Amino acid sequence: ATLGLDWTKFGQVLTEINLWYLLLTPLVYAMNITFSVLRWQAILKQWDIEPGTWKLWKIYLISSFWGNFLPSTIGGDGYRFLALRSLPNAGKTKIFSSLLLDRLYGYVALVIIHFIVVVIYWRDLQNSTFLLGVELAILAAAIVLGIMGLGVGHFFNSRNSETSASGWLARVVNKTSEIFTLFKGQNWRISASGLF
């Protein structure tokens, strides 16, 4: 990757970098991890799993390493799943549900931030019909997913749920993860023709 690199220009670019940005980066990263840990801790508390903030912070840092080191971010979630297995009240369904719900909340936050940025750069978007079409497609998908989420939430709220989690979204995720856990016990046979 560095065979064709012009080291003189590279050194010149390094000297032009504002050092305050480099010093600010670890602080912003630590804040990101801290907010993610607090969000995950609030989710885990719904299922009476309380490992403590410092332990979750360590688990999240190690899972971030695995998420960056392995080819996909699933490795980080896998580590978080395994790290919580030894805790009391931490069944497979509850841990999987907490990870799924954490990802869902992260996605919702990303969509919200996305639309805030769209408002800021609205004039630039109006100059590109392609980007405007992409933004309208993202908006339509977000609306459809939101309506589906509310519909599923209404469905599970209208039924008497015996789960210990509070809130309709927690019950939806819990029910979904119970289905995935049930699939695990099945004997699945996949042939090459079944993949196409």
Notes on the structure:
Helices cover 74% and strands 0% of the residues. The protein is mainly α. It is globular, with a radius of gyration of 22 Å.
Largest sheet data? none
**Shape annotation:** globular
Series of secondary-structure elements, N-terminal to C-terminal: HHHHHHHH
Mean model confidence by pLDDT: 78
Gyration radius over CA: 22 Å
Find the structural class using helix and strand composition: mainly alpha
Tags for this model:
196 residues, mainly alpha, 8 helices, 74% helix, globular
Briefly say what this structure is:
The protein has 196 residues and is mostly helical.
Helix-strand blueprint:
Blueprint: H1 7-16, H2 19-45, H3 53-69, H4 74-84, H5 92-120, H6 122-126, H7 129-158, H8 168-184
Helix pairs in contact: 2-3, 2-5, 3-4, 4-5, 5-8, 7-8
